[in-house]
Amino acid sequence: MKRIISLLLVAIFVLVPLSVSAQSEIKVLLDGVAIEFDQPPVIISDRTMVPVRAIYEALGAEVSWDATTRTASGEKNGIIVSVTIDEPKVSINYNKKGIDAPAVIVNDRTLVPVRALAEGFGVKVDWDATTRTVILKNNDTTTTITDYEADGDSYSTYIGQVSEGVPNGYGTGTLATYSDTYFIGSWEDGIPAIGRLYTNDNSFGFVGFVGYSYGAIHGYSEATLPSGEAYHGNWENNMMNGYGELYMPDGSYYKGEFKSNAMYGYGEIYDAATGMTDAGNWVNGEFIG
Predict the structure, then answer these.
(1) Which domains, ranges and CATH numbers included, belong to the chain?
(2) Secondary structure (H, E, C), 265-289
(3) Strands 89-92 and 79-84, how do they pair?
(4) What letter does residue 261 receive in the DSSP assignment?
(5) Could you tell me the mean pLDDT of each successive run of 10 residues in the chain, 289 residues long?
(6) Are the CB atoms for 87 and 101 separated by under 8 Å?
(7) Backbone angles phi, psi at 8, to 5 degrees
């Protein structure tokens, strides 16, 4: 993570396509206790779909809904599990994994394959076909570690999944060196692996968040640098690569493609001083029309 500091300082209702099971009611048990639903679970394309909110709440997770992206999230013990309507993926601490079926809306309730939600929180899932019962067993492996050292960084607190006494799996680590700065994502053998690095501390080199992958900035970010420039876009191996939007303190901006930290490809630039906008192709930061 210390390499990042120096770098940044310089820088709805849906139609279900297949049949929905109309057989007897599906039951869901969590540690032997039945979960109550206002919208019963259903089987869609041979997948047991359950209401997201009810499962999150039964597991003790804090629930949120983003109406703009149509994303339902549950947060517990440093782990965030999110599903988006019609997207066949589940996001666990910003690491996306494919799931058997996308989340759908039925009777104004978001339904998703039960396994996708439960396993993100370390819950074992079984299915009893005879009684049509989903059996959830909470094998919660989350814990809290204080005053933790990893890869040359000091963390005041780590909350998340732990194996053999060190972070392994998904969790959140709060850095001790910088105020209000933390990494949330996956950890491997005690080291931050893939996720997001957040901070509100200018001394860290930026304010906002950056994608993080094995010691490098990698992925989407929304970060404002001490210079006042803000970059909302993609990174690859510590460099701006792919689509991004660079906003200047005076209101000027560039929106387009980047390659190796330079404007490269098609893009649009706006000059706040003149009110003029140019759009076209760029090579190594030079506009060629």
Answers:
(1) 18-138 (3.30.457.10), 142-287 (3.90.930)
(2) EEEEEEECCCCEEEEEEEECCEECC
(3) antiparallel
(4) T
(5) 45 34 74 92 87 92 94 94 93 92 90 84 90 89 90 93 92 92 95 96 90 94 93 95 97 97 96 95 91
(6) no
(7) -75, -30
pLDDT of 20: 41
Measured distance CA(135)–CA(58) in Å, rounded? 13
Alpha-carbon gap, residue 63 to 236, rounded angstroms: 32
Dihedral sign, Cα of residue 215, residue 227, residue 219, residue 105: positive
Closest listed residue to residue 50, CA positions, set 160, 127, 122, 138? 127
Instruction: Report strand pairing: 253-259 vs 262-271.
Output: antiparallel
Contact 148, 155 (CB under 8 A): yes
Q: At residue 124, what is the residue type? A: K
Distance of CA 238 to the CA centre of its chain: 19
The pLDDT value given to residue 24: 61
Q: Is 8 helix (H, G, I), strand (E, B) or coil?
A: helix
Using DSSP's 3-state secondary structure scheme, residue 109 falls into: strand
Read off the tokens for 5: 């500091």
